[in-house]
Amino acid sequence: MSTADSGCVDCAGAMDKLHSYVDRELTTVELQEVRVHLEDCPPCARHFDFEEHMKQLVHRKACPEVAPEHLLSRILANLKQA
Predict the structure, then answer these.
(1) Residue 24: left if φ>0, alpha if ψ -120 to 50, beta else—which one?
(2) Cα–Cα dist 34/10, whole Å
(3) What is the Cα–Cα distance from 37 to 10, expressed in whole angstroms?
(4) DSSP secondary structure, 71-82, as one string
């Protein structure tokens, strides 16, 4: 039986879904397939962990500031009026 028939992904299939996985853009089924693979494949799991941490680091460094509460409140109020 092929990996496509069994609902599993191999290393190449997991890597094809790497960025979608990190960006949380996979379907529930795809997410489960990748998670099953990562549980059984430490090299892929390490690679996915690295990419996840890199994305978090870039986000923290690129977006270090949080909007002030009064600004967020004004934006929400304007959106409710619209």
Answers:
(1) left
(2) 9
(3) 7
(4) HHHHHHHHHHH-
pTM for the predicted model, two decimal places: 0.66
- CB burial class (10 A; 0-12, 13-18, 19+) of residue 69? exposed
Helix (H, G, I), strand (E, B) or coil at 64: coil
Full pLDDT tens readout for the chain, 82 residues: 334 445 689 999 999 999 999 999 999 999 999 999 999 999 999 999 999 999 999 988 888 777 889 998 999 999 999 8
Say whether 23 sits in a helix, a strand or coil. coil
> Residue written as tokens 């997410």?
31
Stated length of the chain: 82
Q: CA 5 to CA 29: how far, in whole Å?
A: 13
